[in-house]
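Lecture 7, part B: from sequences to assemblies.

Below are the input chains for today's worked example.
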Amino acid sequence: MDRQQLIDALNRGRAERHCFEDLDYARLTEAVSGHPRGSVILPDGVVIPGYPSIARIHSLSAGLREQFQGHFWAEEKIDGYNVRILRHRDRIYAFSRGGFVCAFSTDRLPDLMPLSVFETEPDLVLCAEIAGPETPYLEGSPPHIEHDVQLFVFDMMRAGRPGFLAQQEKMRLFERHGLPATRIFGRFRPADTEALRALILQLDSEGAEGLVLKAELDATRAKYVTGRSNVTDIRVCSEQLLDLPPEYFTNRLMRLALFVTEHGQQGDPDLERSLGRAFLAGLDQAVERSRDRGRVGHRYRCRFRERRNALHFMAHMAATGGERVRMAPGTPRAEDGYWVVAFERVFDRMTGTLSTALSGAIQFD
Amino acid sequence: MDRQQLIDALNRGRAERHCFEDLDYARLTEAVSGHPRGSVILPDGVVIPGYPSIARIHSLSAGLREQFQGHFWAEEKIDGYNVRILRHRDRIYAFSRGGFVCAFSTDRLPDLMPLSVFETEPDLVLCAEIAGPETPYLEGSPPHIEHDVQLFVFDMMRAGRPGFLAQQEKMRLFERHGLPATRIFGRFRPADTEALRALILQLDSEGAEGLVLKAELDATRAKYVTGRSNVTDIRVCSEQLLDLPPEYFTNRLMRLALFVTEHGQQGDPDLERSLGRAFLAGLDQAVERSRDRGRVGHRYRCRFRERRNALHFMAHMAATGGERVRMAPGTPRAEDGYWVVAFERVFDRMTGTLSTALSGAIQFD
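Predicted structure of the full complex, as structure tokens:
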């Protein structure tokens, strides 16, 4: 992107300038001349494309038939947050979906993957999911990640070039550089409904989130999630029932019903109980928190290698989270060679509604 | 209300004129000079006040303490729809909450209560709930009403006068005229928390909706519902998840959690399962209806004594329900001395969303 295009985008409110230590960069808050929202513009004008949304299919059999013509690859969809990782001059950065340098992810990269890949592939951009119980962003975690965080690469780009590397090239680079990657389940055709049905049921029973299907010869992609991932999402977020858009919950209930009916799980008492519990356990906890502490919120904890990155993260939270984010006293705190950041995100509407209800006040509805 | 006030209200869009056979009346669509919305103005200018909203408490113990000073009566809250019943000239009418003559309720009154009460009490206005599996308005029904509909009087007014009759006078009239009334559980004080707790738990186990508490000496009133009534509401409406305001569901989940925590029912596996089933059974059925019939909707059936009332009702549905209401072919149909009206109310958003999802289409979210 040339300098004038960027200046125009900044003037029209479609881009924002930011800096992270000595890196000055811009991120697109809207699409600009073919570059999607979330794209990052580096100081030399090189554009790192925003990671595109992947469309969802709600019916496995009909979705495969309607969306794919030729072969496609099936990969695991991980329930984490998306980063793009790249080297610029001598430093390696992780950018969030929105195009910010993520101080947390950037800090932890040396723990999560071999960075030597950028020595032989300096223009590589790794698209990865970071997941685990100690992210500063997510309430839930895949069941197989017991502590801290892990990283899973699932796509690759070249800086300044649109599109992803082909599947075979990506897999070669995974292997050559020992990169941590999402599970790749193989190559399928639209008629392989039964194999994919068996696969998604296996993932459902493991507690995995689902599949991303990627056409081999064109840009077609689709995601398809397990029934249980919807219950999990509801469980980890029911404590903030009134603070999330209601569609968060209704969309997941619809997806769950579509999964259940497609895979013959109607009337399963364990599933019914787990769904009821997903709502009630979080809500009961919210009521108890409101009684005991006078507020409802979620406590996050994550750790940083470098104190200055912890401080960058805390400044970012203070700027974007406002009053709702309350750092624990003494944060960041040194522990086992890391800097631990602990904070609570307060759910305003849950806090207010429950406080009124428990006070004995009346309400017209 | 004098003629000029009514004309002003009509001109300002705060009242509407309607007729039902030879009765010309007006209803207030907004409050006008102290008369609440839903008030009915009869041809002689007599005002039948709109039935007021009753505020809700979410905590039994704190709510009693905060809302009531002296004695109050506890009555059963019935899960039906509200009517005001009165005689005008020689006919008896039932008006809906909004102030329309309800053709269905008006038609069925002779089956539901002794109308002779209006011979000795011509200016009496009975406030009643009509409930049962065969109303044209409701998807659910109290468990003890096995077929058709029943009527329960719970308040009385005098035409043209604001306020309700005192409890003792109301109870005397119930008895003297053999009127079907809601259950009255007795007279309590704010300190009677334990008795009321036992009562609401008894109602919860019966599947009743809850309590209305009415102060003896002033106009203070409050309602308090059982935990299970929230699960029931979700169960009967989950098939229309996307067609109701999302607050329908979130409010009930909040109330359920407040009930569960106040009454020590956390972690009850039967309750958890019933909540999960409440969502899933309706949603699974919606998916199956979408597959089998190409649309999602609820089928209603009710019966009328008089064919012309059935036709009035059908005309009202056509005027207010539009395309979404589909009368069954041959309606009204004569059966066992009644005229049966059967129709389906189609849920547009459920129909559209499920049809897209089942087609295999992709969706960005």
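Note for the exam: Residues 181 and 354 of chain B are 43 Å apart (CA to CA). Keep this in mind when comparing with the next example.
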